[in-house]
Write a structure and sequence with these properties.
Two copies of one chain form a homodimer. By secondary structure, chain A is mostly helical. Chain A is about 50% helix and about 10% strand. In chain A, strand 3, helix 4 and strand 4 form a beta-alpha-beta unit. In chain A, helix 4 runs parallel beside helix 5, helix 7 packs across helix 10 and helix 10 crosses helix 11. The longest helix of chain A has 24 residues. The first copy, chain A, starts with a helix and ends with a helix. Chains A and B meet through helix 7, helix 8, helix 9, helix 10 and helix 11 of A and helix 7, helix 8, helix 9, helix 10 and helix 11 of B.
């Protein structure tokens, strides 16, 4: 986000907040921000815009902290993969004395299994969908500013409620992540030498951070759990068709998978 | 295979056999073979080498047909994704009057979801593992010739029994394929616009041909069915951990997926 904002001139000055002073030099060296500090309070002091890009379980806390120090009409937004729990916690603790100060939840549908400042890509959001989740408490002006920010980074912005968001991404992101991880986990190490591009593609996202994903899954547990049970039933349908050597049933199952895969391929950017 | 053999000068003349005369011109235009015909018997006449690259359910029939017409000491090999049923059928019908005439089962662990002669890649096997599945009936000379062929196309050749092969690829290829297809199938079309690279990677192989994969799965039904039930249990373990909000169990499951994914990443070519 910092790199995209700088490259597109969306802010005069971008301050990056790191978790510990030891990381300051490493982030400075990447040139993704104008200034780096481990002092979040100082960094937020008088800021017009704060983007909270921490793991989902700490976003609400940092958003509320930022609200105490940012400019009175600042926009606070995030990049978390879940929304309902974050929005509820933020709205429960939001200060009532701001002059338009507002939080607008955001989830850019773009990412990479690589982490750290060195992996920054200024065009990561270019053409990607970003979901904003305003509520009845969101001032129209703040929503417009959030839209301008994410569109300014090249995103296509859509709006939905926090609950709608969480149900949708359970199926488009969280369940596929668990599936990738489970496929990897059930592959005995002794046969890893006999994997090819199919295994590599199917398991790629399993390289993501377990602690980050633990919190994402916990924050969206019911929709994900329901999606996993539906996926499990689908696998059992394959196994049952195999047990009775039912080629017609197998082909019907495979055709449905291909149809949905190709329907996405036609409409969406990327492959 | 034809393009790789030509580019590396592994045969003096490569004849491509197509299913119907209407396809002759299309394959000729791609320049992957020296000659194209729909007459398999004529193409095999006196051939020193026949590579049967049809769907798995027809490989044995074509290998036996080729054996009737190829040179008396010809090598017949294949590129099928399953081995035990093919080898059993080939050995049951193999002519006893050949002068070294032999079939050596092969499975190059390389491929692409794209199909047709236009998608040919001469370097597809470069650095890929190819599994050969000789049996007690395989003449050492034929095995050496098969090894020279697949190594000549750039593969790293390993040998195992047909049953060992089928059990290994059930877990490294067939189960992941079904998982990819199932993840795609359980994604409602209404939320396809909210997919990103994670969904795209995890479901990529679901674009493969349903009729081709139906036959692969049927020919390896027991190992695949067992693998799918194991995968289904793994997904149920995630769902149960989510239902009880058990972050420790979730992280342990995610860590195991990452560990196996990364173990492969370190040792194998590609990503």
């Amino acid at each position: 986000v910092a790199l995209a904002v700088r490259q597109r001139g969306l802010a005069k000055r971008v301050i990056g907040v790191v978790r510990s002073p030891e990381r300051v030099g490493r982030v400075e060296a990447c040139g993704v921000v104008d200034e780096v500090t481990a002092d979040a309070v100082a960094a937020c002091g008088g800021a017009d815009l704060v983007v909270v890009a921490t793991p989902v379980d700490t976003i609400a806390r940092w958003a509320l902290e930022a609200a105490q120090h940012a400019a009175p009409d600042a926009l606070v937004t995030d990049a978390g993969s879940t929304k309902a729990a974050i929005i509820a916690a933020v709205e429960a603790g939001w200060p009532s004395d701001g002059d338009g100060l507002a939080f607008v939840g955001a989830h850019p549908l773009a990412g990479d299994h690589r982490t750290g400042p060195e992996a920054s890509q200024g065009d990561l959001f270019d053409g990607a969908t970003t979901i904003l989740t305003p509520t009845s408490a969101t001032p129209p002006k703040a929503l417009a500013a959030a839209r301008a920010l994410w569109e300014g980074m090249g995103s296509v912005v859509v709006e939905m409620t926090p609950d709608e968001h969480d149900r949708a991404v359970a199926l488009t992101s969280h369940v596929p992540h668990v599936a990738a991880s489970a496929v990897a986990a059930v592959t005995p190490e002794a046969v890893l030498g006999y994997t090819a591009s199919g295994w590599a593609d199917t398991t790629r996202v399993a390289a993501g951070s377990p602690s980050l994903w633990r919190e994402i899954l916990l924050a969206n547990s019911r929709p994900v759990s329901e999606g996993l049970r539906r996926l499990s039933q689908e696998l059992d349908a394959y196994a049952a068709a195999l047990d009775r050597q039912d080629g017609v049933a197998l082909e019907t199952l495979l055709e449905e998978g291909r149809r949905i895969r190709e329907a996405r391929g036609r409409d969406a950017l990327g492959s």
